[in-house]
Amino acid sequence: MSYKMIVLDLDDTLLRDDHTISERTKQALMEAQKAGVKVVLASGRPTFAMKPIAKELCLADYGSYILSFNGGKILNCQNYEELFSSTLSPVDAHKLYEISRREEVYIHTYIGDEIYTEDDNPYTTIEAVITGMPINIVDNFVEAISVPVVKALMVENPEKLKEVELKLQEELGEQFSIMRSKPYFLEFTEKGVTKGTSLAQLIDDLGIKREEVIAMGDSYNDLEMIEFAGLGVAMGNAPEDIKAKADYVTDTNMNDGVAKVVEKFVLSELVNA
Question: Is the pLDDT of residue 178 over 80?
Fold first, then answer.
């Protein structure tokens, strides 16, 4: 199979634990792009926190794309034009806030390039470190969120959040897409919006078949795109139930797992062509 697109989750997939890309992985992705293969970044991160990685990989030079906010936005890397944007209404955000109070978990969302929350908490601080975005601690979340937002996150310790996830999937699953991107991040986007659905829209726009797509990820918010792609790859550091649903399991993010897939399924095919 001649693959035309490689879709990559960022944290714990493309990026090592220190949030950098290994030299081997970077070289493999640059060689793939030079051969005409699109490299697409797909993350739960806000767009702001994906742009430096897109720049490092020269995605704009090759006319590539970003799927940010778990597929809530599709952006052209050359001009950051939005090809697709999904939002939650302020009413939806307020409802999620009230439920977070009831369940005794923290909540944050994004306006512009800032993280908005009512509570100073360690999990939102982790998000700020990952994304490089400042935290705006507001006195009243409901009053502060007066415009549509792309997604909201409930955050807490993993044991607590797992219980909340099971409960809210039952209660809110018909209204929102709900998924955990990290053990302590429970994400809410518009119903029907995932990395998988946005990937499907993007390849349809580009005339690429799903069989021609490799998608790699490590977490539950990657599952739909892993199952959608022609070659769905789970990282070696992914949970066992993610690995079970993948077509192929590669090495970990710390051992060039992405590079090894690109070398095996893309670059070796180019050599043999």
Answer: yes
